[in-house]
């Protein structure tokens, strides 16, 4: 149920974001007579920013928050203490499994985010703004760089690790009963959202900072 909810959140967010990029891009580029490059804008922004960030946010808001609540409930009900009394290393048993779950979940989440963003951008540009299919497809195929997809996927993986580490940390160290669990979930979500944005910034600087990795002049 939790993974299904995550897929729904990611799908709706990326559909909306991809559509907004297409609407704003077509309008803004049209002001200077180059609305034909809307496909370029879609290939550029959806891969490098929208898909990995939305996947990270969806992971934090659903699976991550669930992990914090689960671990927090186990902590305040002394279930974690009981696990340790049985000579089981609680971090390895409880945290690592959720970290692996996050890594597994981010793969379909990222893939769905990319596809949904591309679909929304193409649908909006072609069927709402009226640009020809061939023109849009030409520019998105021209400027969609395979290495960008690989770097974007790596960014999503790094985000998944960071987000799950944040959420499991707050859940594992929760205290103060049910109220404390709620506070821990809120703190974890806020922190993980900041982490997602910071990771995006640093990876963008590291990968694309020296050069944009594309040549618009042809």
TrEMBL record:
<keyword id="KW-0812">Transmembrane</keyword>
<feature type="transmembrane region" description="Helical">
    <location>
        <begin position="99"/>
        <end position="121"/>
    </location>
</feature>
<keyword id="KW-1133">Transmembrane helix</keyword>
<feature type="transmembrane region" description="Helical">
    <location>
        <begin position="193"/>
        <end position="211"/>
    </location>
</feature>
<keyword id="KW-0472">Membrane</keyword>
<feature type="transmembrane region" description="Helical">
    <location>
        <begin position="46"/>
        <end position="67"/>
    </location>
</feature>
<dbReference type="Pfam" id="PF02405">
    <property type="entry name" value="MlaE"/>
</dbReference>
<dbReference type="GO" id="GO:0005548">
    <property type="term" value="F:phospholipid transporter activity"/>
</dbReference>
<feature type="transmembrane region" description="Helical">
    <location>
        <begin position="149"/>
        <end position="172"/>
    </location>
</feature>
<protein>
    <submittedName>
        <fullName>Permease family protein</fullName>
    </submittedName>
</protein>
<dbReference type="InterPro" id="IPR030802">
    <property type="entry name" value="Permease_MalE"/>
</dbReference>
<dbReference type="GO" id="GO:0043190">
    <property type="term" value="C:ATP-binding cassette (ABC) transporter complex"/>
</dbReference>
